[in-house]
Amino acid sequence: xxxxxxxxxxxxxxxxxxLIVLGMIxxxxxxxxxxxxxxxxxxxxxxxEILGPKEGTTSVALLxxxxxxxxxxxxxxxxxxAVFAGPTGGYLLAWLFAPLLIGSLRQHFGxxxxxxxxxxxxxxxxxxxxxxxxxxxxxxxxxxxLTAALMSNLAFIPGDLIKAGVAVAVARQLRRVPVLNLG
Length: 183
Ligand code: BTN
Hints:
This protein is mainly alpha-helical. It is built from six helices and no strands.
């Protein structure tokens, strides 16, 4: 196996491990919707930001695959195929596509982005995309009005903006380490 492939494999597995560790941090229940505030979505943003579309998506897909076969790797120890049909199914689906979106946007347009431009991209592709997809599913699955689902998701925005800022800051620092070859 080529050295580059081994590096990519290791980076992907490491990112999946980070996602699992973030899932061990307890969520904060909101009470008015069956979706907690979690830290794991910061790992999803980081996956796209740090590893790019291919490895980023693979690392999140691996997490979701492990969850689907029953490993309790989501926040609060949930796992199993049923979670994908539950109230948070839309967020989980969006988690799969967010690294593809984030990584592709950065790869194609972002080589000279400032911190703020990169932050704005993550807010669109890693916060709004996930929260809107999650709200659409939540509205349908839990029979909540779409406007109510969208409004209740506003509760996630302050925390999600902080997570986006951390993801950008960490990614930009890591890219400055030449040996990691993150581009
Ligand atoms: C799960 O553990 O089943 C998925 C939880 C999804 C939580 C979403 S991700 C986007 C938004 N921000 C949060 O902090 N929570 C929700």
